[in-house]
Design a protein that fits this description.
Elements lengths: L1 H9 L25 H14 L26 E3 L5 H14 L2 E5 L5 H15 L3 H7 L7 E3 L12 E5 L12 H25 L13 E9 L13 E5 L6 E5 L2 E5 L6 E5 L1 H6 L7 E7 L10 E9 L5 E2 L5 E3 L5 E3 L21 E2 H10 L14
Parallel strand pairs: 1-2
Antiparallel strand pairs: 2-9, 3-4, 4-5, 5-11, 6-9, 6-11, 7-8, 7-10, 12-15, 13-14
Helix pairs in contact: 1-6, 3-6, 4-6
Length: 377
């Protein structure tokens, strides 16, 4: 289903709307106008680059994210829509206004997702020493444990590449590997559809190696808080059961309740830069909400992030026009523009090193600070 949808979208005319080890100290050479605080942040980022990869960072107790009093249902978009134009219209609306939506009719069997949950629970049941032995950290891959002050291990997670390979012969991740590949197909369809709806060239269309995928699996429990952030183009989060969750969107923390067996799709910071600010974004992965009538027991959160290779440069993929008045603003592919597109805060971005950016946002813990601010023009 995902494959046929991709072929169909690939033929659509463009809309008129405009695993590696810890990275070496290779600072970005992209010119950017910075304030003194931004320069200080860059200096700190480069100092972190020079730390040995085995050095652990101090952990800090963080407050749970604030949540809305009532959960909203994200916009429903069907992947098997018989009218591609309606599909793109709905996608553009959700992307430009919210930065997230729920995808239905993805053809991913619900039984496969439940098999992955069972398979993942067996990983979290392993002793801490075995987790570290079987899944050594190769930033951002491997086993991660963000302990709180009581050493409860509330934020254990595993990050795998798209192959979900493992060195141990004692464990099998067959279901996880299949599930990851199926979600990756859906993610590439979303990227293609997003490029058609918003109006930017899809860099994956000619070269699939321009993106890569990480599967992030976390064990949720009451009191869980946001884990590490990692930049991405689109995130796909399979909803196995009824569960409210919080998203850190451009408008702040929002509470949503996706339908069972749907895929909650979040648009990431890379997608916002590609669109030159035309779409909204969600930072990080959804955070389960507990303390109400939802499941209060152990819960596995599975998120596939379609992201970039570490050596990439992040650049806007929508051209800009310099007017006679000295203003710059996005233009459509037919050369047109509108006054509502004109430059302003949150609209334009300069190019930057993905490696520098990913390393910084992964280690900083300022969740309410928008890490893209220093790259806005």
């Amino acid at each position: 289903m995902a494959s046929s949808a991709h072929d169909q979208l690939h033929q659509l005319p463009n809309s008129n709307y405009g695993t590696t080890a810890a990275p070496p100290p290779t600072p970005s050479t992209q010119p950017n106008p910075h304030s003194s605080s931004d320069l200080a942040a860059d200096v700190l980022s480069r100092l972190l680059h020079r730390l040995p990869p085995t050095l652990s960072f101090p952990t800090r107790r963080r407050s749970p994210p604030p949540t809305a009093p009532a959960a909203a249902s994200p916009p429903l978009i069907s992947l098997s829509s018989e009218n591609p134009n309606n599909f793109l219209t709905d996608l553009l609306s959700a992307s430009s206004q919210l930065g997230f939506f729920q995808l239905t009719n993805s053809s991913i069997p619900s039984q496969l997702a439940r098999s992955v949950e069972s398979e993942s629970l067996s990983l979290f049941n392993l002793p801490r020493e075995q987790k570290q032995l079987y899944f050594p950290q190769k930033w951002p891959l491997g086993f991660h444990c963000e302990e709180d002050e009581d050493d409860n291990g509330m934020s254990d997670s595993f990050c795998f590449d798209s192959s979900c390979s493992i060195e141990s012969t004692e464990l099998s991740l067959a279901s996880l590997g299949e599930f990851t590949r199926e979600l990756e197909k859906v993610g590439l369809v979303v990227v293609e559809a997003l490029s058609c709806a918003v109006g930017f060239e899809n860099p994956v269309r000619e070269d699939p190696t321009r993106v890569c995928s990480f599967m992030w699996i976390s064990e949720g429990s009451p009191g869980n808080v946001p884990g590490r952030f990692y930049p991405y183009v689109v995130g796909l989060h399979y909803q196995i059961r009824w569960q409210r969750c919080s998203l850190l969107a451009d408008s702040g923390w929002v509470s949503v309740t996706p339908e069972i067996d749907s895929i909650l799709v979040t648009l990431g910071d890379v997608a916002q830069v590609w669109s030159n600010g035309k779409i909204k974004k969600v930072r990080g992965r959804p955070v389960p909400i507990y303390g109400d009538d939802s499941n209060t027991g152990r819960c596995i959160s599975m998120s596939l992030l379609v992201t970039l290779p570490v050596e990439s440069t992040v650049s806007p993929l929508i051209p800009r026009l310099i007017s006679v008045y000295g203003e710059d603003y996005p233009i459509n592919k037919d050369g047109g523009g509108s006054s509502t597109d004109r430059g302003g805060e949150g609209r334009a971005f300069s190019s930057f090193s993905f490696e520098d950016y990913a390393w910084r946002v992964y280690h900083e813990r300022l969740h309410l600070k928008d890490s893209l601010d220093q790259y806005r023009i």
